[in-house]
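Hi U.,

Before I forget, here's the chain from the pilot set. I'm dumping it here mostly so it's searchable later in email.
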Amino acid sequence: MRTDSSPGTLPAREHLPAAGAGTPVLDVVVPVYNEEKDLQPCVRRLHEHLARTFPYPFRITIADNASTDTTPHVAARLEVEIPEVAHVRLEQKGRGRALRSVWSASDAPVLAYMDVDLSTDLNALLPLVAPLISGHSDLAIGSRLSRSSRVVRGAKREFISRSYNLILRGSLQARFSDAQCGFKAIRKDVAQVLLPLVEDTGWFFDTEMLVLAERAGLRIHEVPVDWVDDPDSTVHIVRTATDDLKGVWRVGKALATGALPLDRLARPFGDDPRDREITDVPTGLARQLVGFCVVGALSTLFYLLLYSLFRSFTGPQIANALALLVSAVANTAANRRLTFGVRGRGGAVRHQAQGLVVFGIGLALTSGSLAALDAATADPAHSTELAVLVAANLAATVLRFLLFRAWVFPERREDGDRRHPEPEPRPTVVAQNPYGTPYGTPYGTSHGSPYGTSRSSAPYEPARRDSTPHLQPVRPHDTDPRETR
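Structure:
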């Protein structure tokens, strides 16, 4: 994806290194609000399932969203009784706020969350996170709308869920099938760059996260799930639907105006190191040709409609110039955004000025064709004029693509060679502990805690020798790595 800003900060996807076990590989967040009855059976069931089936170290983090009942006491007791359970207290409500806080501070390379009611069959958990561990995907979601999913819920919720996803597909061009399923996972390196772009702190949080990830070209893996509706759910459907529609409008507006710096999420082409050593191949040429042809076809139809409109009250030369000018501005804007992937407003005026130069060349070709037609025929038919203009525009289109690619939207490179841009070195990142402070900074100093001032017990501390997560595969003759913790 080509932009006018800095190149993407995400490296190529790689399988998480299989070395000595250190920090947990998976951190499953369970956001709760006044769930004193369901919290303990949920966490114990989830812990038993992970201890029995998940082959790597894990953590279950209870994110208490300012509960007013005895939920904090239940969470504190679970944290004491189960070593793999941690408890975080937030003084403000909002599922999105809870996930952002815990995910941002977690030291696990794979982050997930699920609803406390455990409506989703836990057998889908390992298939959910496996593509993230292997490096195949960036995010993973459970889908209740897949053909192979088995779902038990009322007609009202079924209608609302499917209608909401149709709205996402129609307004934001979302291609993922189920935005609302409370069963998702993300790689830590992706979350570090993606979460700062997500504004919502409530139920729309994960929908916004998925839309931005998909628009940035990240890979989203979908897992069919078996799902049973919780009849005692405390979600306020009308208020949640209203907030979601507001979020759809806000995100759609931001995407339309190019206000989101999605280039930060760009991945380099190819995960195999050999792909990054390919030389003398124009990058993105096939995709750009397809995009340019689509935009060109639509622009030609738009131009012909304008020409026919202007021709009804003016001569052919003036009608051609007006139609070509209006369509050229629209064509440059569409190619800038869709074909060459330039986002944001930076350089837009310069690009339009260069596009007008290209327009001038096209105007010379088409006007010359009309002049030649007038010289050859005293009173040419309207259909003949259109045929000549189509032929002239085809020639101008080829020249326009070459000028756009080489002059208006060239690939950028700092050393002057614009054909093969080199990735900039990644900035040094200071390793941080689960409270957002650099290693070695005492808890409670001026750095503060992203979770607020209340903690149920002493903070859990990750291994400090190396901030890079390492995995230790479990083999049949190995002992369970969790037995030593």
